[in-house]
Amino acid sequence: MNYISAPPALLPARAGVGFKPEHFDGIAAERQPLGFFEVHAENYMGAGGVPHAQLRFLRERYALSLHGVGLSIGSPEPLDRDHLSRLRRLCALYQPESFSEHLAWSSHGGVYFNDLLPLPYTEETLAGVAAHVDETQTALGGRILIENPATYVRFSQSDIPETEFLAELARRTGCGLLLDLNNVFVSARNHGESALGYLASFPLRSVGEIHLAGFFDASEEAAAPLLIDSHGATVADEVVSLFEWTIEQTGPLPTLIEWDNDVPDWPVLLAEAMKAQDRLRHAERGYARRLDRRAL
């Protein structure tokens, strides 16, 4: 099997974790065997203080990914220019190896929602999202990554499959994609579809980062299949299997462990990242063997 050729990622093709301030002392105690840390950009748009002191410490020692949750890039309304300006200043200050955002919207009419909301997949929506991605990339001076969403409902007017929507978005704008495999599994289960089938049609050549996380099974309460992208548990075996399949196709990619709720002690989160790192090493060895066979 040949690797799918993807654009070079600026983040190292190793495991990383989302930074939580309660873990800072454990992280600072010794050099960590991680490729990078990721933070939510909106948590660092204020001036100075302990958050920035901790982020400077990380930036000086590790690769850094900024992950946005508030740009509302899927909204039909114009981007919030003040928010974009704050984001530009933050990126200029810390020079992250990567910036990513969600294929979602979270504001309307000046009201901001504490959620990432879905959008209809139509040509009109695609044109609007592409314009917002272009504007963001121009403002930041580089390529951004767009993350596939976890979804619980669909719009009847959608006439473009999600994977085709993302592929065309990447083609039009030159953006990369952040492949969240927990989102893939959650959405597939919620809609009664195949997660592997989704991945088989995903534009893997555009993937610059992978996210892994845990979910909450709310099927009993809902009296129907319902998984919630909770980021509050270890990575499920089903998601691990999707990860192994993906990196067999692509080779090692920067891979983040997200754990935002019921946050465990630092050694637990680090151990979860090391499991992902072991799988990345295995994928790398497989790639090397295939290269050797082709060279014969």
Can you tell me about this structure?
It contains 10 helices and 12 strands. It is an alpha/beta fold and 296 residues long. The chain has one domain: TIM Barrel. The strands form 3 sheets. The chain has an 8-stranded parallel β-barrel, surrounded by 4 helices. A two-stranded antiparallel ribbon has the order 5-6. It has a two-stranded antiparallel sheet with strand order 10-11. It is globular. The two termini are 15 Å apart. The mean pLDDT is 93.
Keywords:
alpha/beta, TIM Barrel, UPF0276 protein Msil_0303, two-stranded antiparallel ribbon, 8-stranded parallel beta barrel, MbnB/TglH/ChrH, 296 residues
